[in-house]
């Protein structure tokens, strides 16, 4: 025997030929395969399984399935998992579980378990594997339909065959538009950790169904009375289910508190199993033939009476039920107020419910739902049921056991003026827990109606939203984690960078060389060396990660005029133009270079991290606002490898690589197509460093060959590779911004000193927002430069700028004038860029940069710290 409450026979779901061992709260117990943790603990007489999340009151097993509001436990073995229903958790050898003091806790280490996602299409999805669901599945399969039947129980009682797919241990958690369903399959929870290591623990199903059949059955409804949360109180149907399914007595001496015939049938089942029925209290004035059957077997049946309270021992476990003036000893109080159709998915699909007096429940409205049929007890279980709201001790009448919400909370909501059940739900949190109001929704609605003096059912139930049951984030992620969630992107030159000691940084999903230190060389010294090399000789940067978008079509020029603040349509083929994109609010979104390849074709560059966002932005406007424009946008980021060649000797390097190109007749902001190192290339004469520069684009499979050829040709000229940190120092010395670093969603082109890139007259996205008084007012933050008073100091990025040094003891708020956006030590010494109130009107002012309690004196300067005249751009500096 696996516990003193296990009966000698019965238990359709357990295998009595085998015994398993598990631990609960550090104590060892035994069970049979097929046992849930709830049935196994009941078999050993363990009554306290968890505690109320806010009251800390002891709680026990209350149901036999997914509606369980009390018995949530923490799985300690294996990977661990919080907030697992004891009624759903199948026992396996080595399972270790602990009771919860109200709330679960995340496992200490990362969840390294395997989780899968899969996609399926079917003609008919049957949700629920009871008799009605099985019949619907067989009928559809025999008619030639592709059928999937899913049920959250371990066994469904129907075999897969042909076009019939059977998914046991699978909960359909959400219905979405156009016949799309999401389901979670528990694959190894009953097999233990060894099986979990070999196969996915759970699988997330994305199912598209032409039609669905809802056969989810009905949920038993509790009754309200003071101290109705004690361990030992259980739904009557669930108590009988434990006997039938697991051969477990949920108690030895029971009181049954009934309001409909189903509770009386449960009392007969318990009686047949050997449970002493001390008394049946039924709210109805007559119990009919079932009451007579119980009396014939010696059971006292009290009609028109209610349980008015309970007693407990020192641990809080039930010892007696109070009926009227009598205290009836018992260790089980089985309660049932009727059956509610389980219609979560039906209401998610937009179905409406109505109160049915015939069923004493909310049932599906007569209007059929497209794509969904409701069958079986999900349509309602005929039979009269009575309800009531007890008087007194409201703070101990628990309406929602999972949320510790009481009748006093409901009265408080009504007193505050809440008359809608939706408002009461939010005021009290009833129905917002992991059980999604399965046992509390209808009693709460009934209580609200009765307290307002309305008829039962006049106050409807609350809206059901997906998911029906909580889904662990690990299951949603599936295998999309780590490198599979954010795949590491590498340029064609990545192996070369690794071989030559590059230190990498992550930019978006890309691995970019940060800098190339020599042995024993500190990072700062390596960056300064690279900066000096570019400024004095030549440097090569792997710029392949820049976003690149090919825009084609007869409407391209007009389209780009609306996207960028500058005029693109006047750009001649073979020429480039700097472009700024704004959002509808007039704030900078991204920037880059637009090159015109032909009359109806353009090449756009974006910042590395914004490439996907910009493409999405372009497509959104084309598809939703300007579908009349004939334009196609294609990401070509991965199709082109790019080497940025910069420095006063870069023209010499390019001449050696492309002798057929007249590099001297290659004006700034233009492009040429030529062979470079024997490779077909597209060359842009642009510069992000302020030096003479070129960006050489070749098909990506030629990227490494181009890189090595550039370095070889530049060797006589002292060329060296440089990384992204050096790139940032060089661009910041020139006052060039990085969208998202020197802008923060509140910066207009004028704020960033880019008013010259804004065409007059508007016509581009966001231009109307720049006409608002706020975008032209005095006191806006604008881009400036900063120099620390102490040249040895590198100001912290993000430091706040204030007018006066803060006092030792701050007693009042200090007005912030701005903040530092970029800060480096470069070829001009220590410098920074900042967004500062009133901008360059403060040039020459002394301010203080505050960070982590430190105050550094700084002087406001022009944002261009190097070659303000731009002479070096053409190699003439």
Question: How would you summarize what this structure contains?
Answer:
The protein has 19 helices and 47 strands. By secondary structure, the protein is of the alpha+beta class. A hairpin with a 2-residue loop joins strand 46 (846-851) and strand 47 (854-861).
Structural class by SSE content: alpha+beta
DSSP summary, beta strand count: 47
Strand content: 25-35%
Number of domains: 5
Can you count the helices? 19
What best-fitting shape do the alpha-carbon axes yield? elongated
Radius of gyration: 36 Å
- Stated plainly, the CATH topology of the largest domain is called Gyrase A, domain 2
Low-confidence residue ranges: none
3D architecture notes:
The chain has 877 residues and is an alpha+beta fold. It has five domains: 80 residues, Ubiquitin-like (UB roll) (Roll); 156 residues, FAD/NAD(P)-binding domain (3-Layer(bba) Sandwich); 118 residues, 3-Layer(bba) Sandwich (FAD/NAD(P)-binding domain), CATH 3.50.50.60; 77 residues, Arc Repressor Mutant, subunit A, CATH 1.10.10.1100; 279 residues, Gyrase A, domain 2, CATH 3.30.1360.120. The protein has 19 helices and 47 strands. The longest helix has 14 residues. The chain is elongated. The termini are far apart.
């Amino acid at each position: 025997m696996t516990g003193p409450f296990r009966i000698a026979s019965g238990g359709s779901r357990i295998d009595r030929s085998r015994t398993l061992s598990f631990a609960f709260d550090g104590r060892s117990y035994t069970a049979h395969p097929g046992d849930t943790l709830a049935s196994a603990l009941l078999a050993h007489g363990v009554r306290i399984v968890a505690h109320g999340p806010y009251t800390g009151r002891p709680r026990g097993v209350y149901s036999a399935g997914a509606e369980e509001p009390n018995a949530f436990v923490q799985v300690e073995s294996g990977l661990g998992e919080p907030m697992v229903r004891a009624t759903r958790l199948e026992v396996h050898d080595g399972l270790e579980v602990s009771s919860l003091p109200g709330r679960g806790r995340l496992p200490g280490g990362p969840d390294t378990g395997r989780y899968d996602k899969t996609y399926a299409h079917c003609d008919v999805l049957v949700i629920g594997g009871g008799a009605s669901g099985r019949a619907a599945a067989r009928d559809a399969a025999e008619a030639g339909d592709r059928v999937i039947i899913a049920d959250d129980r371990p066994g469904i009682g129907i075999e897969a065959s042909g076009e019939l797919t059977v998914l046991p241990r699978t909960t359909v958690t959400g219905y979405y538009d156009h016949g799309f369903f999401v389901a979670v399959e528990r694959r190894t929870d009953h097999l233990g950790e060894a099986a979990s290591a070999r196969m996915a623990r759970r699988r997330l199903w994305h199912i598209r169904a032409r039609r669905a059949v809802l056969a989810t059955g009905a949920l038993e409804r509790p009754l309200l009375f003071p101290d109705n949360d004690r361990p030992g109180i259980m739904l009557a149907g669930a108590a009988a289910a434990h006997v039938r399914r697991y051969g477990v007595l949920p108690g030895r001496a029971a009181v049954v508190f009934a309001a409909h015939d189903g509770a009386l049938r449960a009392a007969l089942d318990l009686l047949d199993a050997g449970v002493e029925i001390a008394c049946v209290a039924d709210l109805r004035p007559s119990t009919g033939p079932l009451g007579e059957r119980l009396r014939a077997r010696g059971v006292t049946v009290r009609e028109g009476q209610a349980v008015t309270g309970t007693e407990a021992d020192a641990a809080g476990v039930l010892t007696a039920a109070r009926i009227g003036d009598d205290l009836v000893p018992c260790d089980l109080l089985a309660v049932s107020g009727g059956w509610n159709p389980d219609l979560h998915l039906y209401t998610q699909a937009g179905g409406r419910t109505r109160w049915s007096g015939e069923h004493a429940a909310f049932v599906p409205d007569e209007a059929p739902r497209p794509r969904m049929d409701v069958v079986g007890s999900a349509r309602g279980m005929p039979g009269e049921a009575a309800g009531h709201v007890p008087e007194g001790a409201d703070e101990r009448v628990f309406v929602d056991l999972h949320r510790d919400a009481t009748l006093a909370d409901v009265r408080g909501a009504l007193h505050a003026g809440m008359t809608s059940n939706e408002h009461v739900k939010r005021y009290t949190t009833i129905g917002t827990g992991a059980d999604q109001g399965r046992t509390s929704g209808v009693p709460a609605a009934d209580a609200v109606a009765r307290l307002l003096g309305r008829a039962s059912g006049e106050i409807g139930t609350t809206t059901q939203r997906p998911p029906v049951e909580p889904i662990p984030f690990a299951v949603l992620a599936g295998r999309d984690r780590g490198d599979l969630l954010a795949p590491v992107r590498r340029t064609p030159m990545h192996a070369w960078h690794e071989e030559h000691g590059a230190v990498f940084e992550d930019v978006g999903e890309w691995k970019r060389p940060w800098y190339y230190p020599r042995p024993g060389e500190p990072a700062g010294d390596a960056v300064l060396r690279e900066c000096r090399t570019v400024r004095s000789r030549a440097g090569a940067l792997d710029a392949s990660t820049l976003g690149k978008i090919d825009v084609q079509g007869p409407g391209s020029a007009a389209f780009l005029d609306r996207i960028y603040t500058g005029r693109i349509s006047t750009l001649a083929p073979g020429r480039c133009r700097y472009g700024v994109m704004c959002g509808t609010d007039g704030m900078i979104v991204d920037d880059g270079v637009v090159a015109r390849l032909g009359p109806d074709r353009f090449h756009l560059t974006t910042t590395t991290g914004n490439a996907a966002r910009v493409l999405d932005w372009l497509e959104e406007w084309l598809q939703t606002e300007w579908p009349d424009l004939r334009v196609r946008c294609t990401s070509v980021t991965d199709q082109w490898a790019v080497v940025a060649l910069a420095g006063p000797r870069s023209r010499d390097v390019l001449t050696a690589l492309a002798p057929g190109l007249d590099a001297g007749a290659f004006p700034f902001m233009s492009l040429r197509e030529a062979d470079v190192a024997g490779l077909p290339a597209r060359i842009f004469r642009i510069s992000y460093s302020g030096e003479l520069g070129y960006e050489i684009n070749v098909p990506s499979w030629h990227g490494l060959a181009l890189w090595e050829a550039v370095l070889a040709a530049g060797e006589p000229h002292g060329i060296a590779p440089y990384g992204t940190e050096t790139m940032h120092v060089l661009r910041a010395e020139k006052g060039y911004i990085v969208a998202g670093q020197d802008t923060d969603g509140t910066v207009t082109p004028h704020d960033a000193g880019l008013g010259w890139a804004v065409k007059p007259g508007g016509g581009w996205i966001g231009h109307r927002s720049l006409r608002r008084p706020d975008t032209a007012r005095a006191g806006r933050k604008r881009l400036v430069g900063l120099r620390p008073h102490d040249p040895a100091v590198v100001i912290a990025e993000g430091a706040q700028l204030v007018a006066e040094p803060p006092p030792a003891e701050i007693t009042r708020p200090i007005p912030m004038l701005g903040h530092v956006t970029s800060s480096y030590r470069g070829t001009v010494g220590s410098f920074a860029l900042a967004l500062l109130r009133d901008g360059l009107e403060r040039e020459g002012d002394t301010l203080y940069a505050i960070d982590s309690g430190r105050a550094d004196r700084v002087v406001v300067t022009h944002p261009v710290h190097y070659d303000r005249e731009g002479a070096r751009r053409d190699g003439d500096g």
